[in-house]
Amino acid sequence: MKRLHTFLLLNISLFLPVSAPLIAQEAEGAKKSRPNILFIAIDDQNDWIGYLGGHPMVKTPNIDRLAGRGTAFTNAHCQSPLCNSSRTSLMTGLRPSSTGIYGLAPWFRNLPEFKNLVTLPQHLKANGYRTYSTGKIYHGRYGRKGAEFDVLGPGSSVGARPKKKLVTTPFGNHPLVDWGEFPHKDEDKGDWKVASWAVKQLNEKPREPFFLSVGFFLPHVPCYATKKWFDLYPDDDSVLPKIRRDDRKDTPRFSWYMHWYLPEVRLKFLEESNQWRNLVRSYLASTSFVDSQVGRVLDALKRNGFDKNTIVVLWSDHGWHIGEKLITGKNTLWDDGTRVPLVFAGPGIKGGQVCSKPAELLDIYPTLSDLCGFKQREHLEGHSLLPQLRDAAAARKWPAITTHNHDNHGVRSEGWRYIRYADGSEELYDMKKDPNEWNNLAANPSLAGVIATHRGFLPTENRKPAPGSRSRILTWENGKATWQGKEIDPAEPIPGQ
Ligand SMILES: [Ca+2]
Ligand SMILES: [Ca+2]
Questions:
Q1: What is the dihedral sign for C-alpha 132, 134, 139, 142?
Q2: Is 318 labeled as catalytic in the residue annotation?
Q3: Is 60 inside a domain boundary?
Q4: How far is the centre of ligand 2, averaged over its atoms, from the C-alpha of 459 (Å)?
Q5: How high is the pLDDT of residue 443?
Q6: Cβ atoms of residues 373 and 9 within 8 Å
Q7: Nearest ligand, measured from the Cα of 249
Q8: pLDDT at position 88, please?
Q9: Which of 194, 218, 256, 422 has a CA-to-CA distance to 33 between 20 and 30 Å?
């Protein structure tokens, strides 16, 4: 806090009549006091993280250590449960409902209105930071050319692959849809290389202040990890998440449109071919491997003496179902699809505290800006978490909102999850009594007030899918749902009912 106060005082002093050399000197002093930022992203990482308790067996000692020395959020949620749209929201500071970016495309720079929008790294650059990026920060290859960052390391990649797929699936057999024991070494993995590049930058003592963004690809499929990471988890059904076979009977038809073939083809395959446990263990093993790579970078930060003056923020872009609510994968508005790790540690942040107030990934941009003492950009739709970073119990009036495709929203407060789909159908869960979201209470008349309160937070602007939205786009218009342009027959019986 002392640094922040010093910086603010110096800024005030710029308005006093002082000589030019003194101003230059003070500006230099202010520059030196700015904290560095280490920005760590994990792809498709749900709440199976030690400090979050999403899986009772998961081992993530390095992330938990970071959580222990900072403020760890237990109720943080993505703004979109899909890579491109989630990352676009975080980096631009705008909701998906304000950009119309709900899918894997477009790249927001291709839309004229966002061509010159100042993203988080550009905001820091404008304030004197040198910006580095490696691995997956924006989706795919987006952001790897142009003016997003000053210095680029290796991009996101799976790294070496097994000679042939480890699991043959009946649904297209996409090369990414694979998992199992990696036959090579940890050092051959893409995420090892990403961490190594980040370590190298730190060892070379970068000019300060720096913004070092490091994006890990796992546990996104293919979930390959070496044997030592599998050995952390028992090879029996005790690893499987708890599910209720009748769970979807009380969810509206619109929720089925997100994964409208139930039994979902992937989960059905996993169970019938005895692969469910293998996928769960592969995901857990991949999470522990990524945790070890986070540890390598954090160790390098400390070894090079940067830990005292570096803010570390760690996040994931969205959750992942592995059987919960009878589906696998992302693209949902339940906690399994939206809840993510979010940890801040470093100067200006109280250590050793856990915050259960709702937080949004959208808040990262204004929070970092606040921690560095910069003027906020006017376009930002998130809210600084600075009050919670000083006192985890500080009141917060906003819930966390997740949007999936046009006009479907989840609103997560401390006690409740409310979902409203584009056709007006609703879900409500009492998250304190029913953390698995098993019992939809939306039809309970005594909870009409709770629903009204949450409904009041729904975004008022709902932009239509942006031009170039080509993948995983669900729309609802004139009483008809369409999936990627093809009408869904509302009379179609729900398979499995
Ligand atoms: Ca992702
Ligand atoms: Ca249910």
A1: positive
A2: no
A3: yes
A4: 26
A5: 98
A6: no
A7: 2
A8: 98
A9: 194
**Token pair belonging to 28:** 């230099």
Residue 353 lies in a domain: yes
What is the CA(489)–ligand 1 centre distance, in A? 30
Same domain, 6 and 151: no
Identify whether 466 is part of a domain. no
Q: Indicate which ligand has the atom closest to the C-alpha of 85.
A: 1
Distance (Å) from CA 441 to ligand 2 centroid: 9
C-beta separation of 458 from 409 below 8 A = yes
Task: Record the tokens describing residue 225, joined without a space.
Answer: 């990890």
Confidence (pLDDT) at 339: 98
177 CA to middle of ligand 1, Å? 14
Residues 300 and 364 in one domain: yes
Which bound ligand lies closest to the C-alpha atom of 326?
Answer: 2
Q: What does the DSSP assignment read for 128-153?
A: T-EEEEEESSSSTTTTSSSSS-SEEE
| Residue 379 appears among annotated catalytic residues | no
Q: Which of 55, 123, 139, 404 is catalytic?
A: 139
Return the pLDDT at 470: 75
Q: Which residues of 270-284 are buried (b: 16+ CB within 10 A; e: fewer)?
A: beeeebbbbbbbbbb
Q: Which ligand is nearest to the CA of 247?
A: 2
Domain that holds residue 26: 1-33
Within a domain: 294? yes
Q: 22 and 133 share a domain?
A: no
Residue 46 CA to ligand 1 centre (angstroms):
10
CA–centroid distance, 10 to ligand 1, in Å, is 41
Query: Which residues have their alpha-adjacent CB atom under 5 A from ion ligand 2?
Result: 247, 250, 438
Tell me the per-residue pLDDT of 93-129, one tens digit each, with 9 for 90 and over. 999 999 999 999 999 999 999 999 999 999 999 999 9
Give residue 8's pLDDT. Answer: 37
Q: How many domains does the chain have?
A: 2
Active-site pick, 77, 78, 83, 123: 83
pLDDT at 9: 36
Q: Are residues 24 and 138 in the same domain?
A: no
Same domain, 244 and 313: yes
Say what the pLDDT of residue 244 is.
97
The tens digit of pLDDT for each residue in 390-426 reads: 999 999 999 999 999 999 999 999 999 999 999 999 9
- The pLDDT value recorded for residue 493 is 55
Residues of the chain with pLDDT under 50: 1-30, 495-497
Q: CA-to-CA distance for 183 and 278, rounded, in angstroms?
A: 15
Please give the Cα distance from 272 to 497 (Å, whole number). Answer: 19
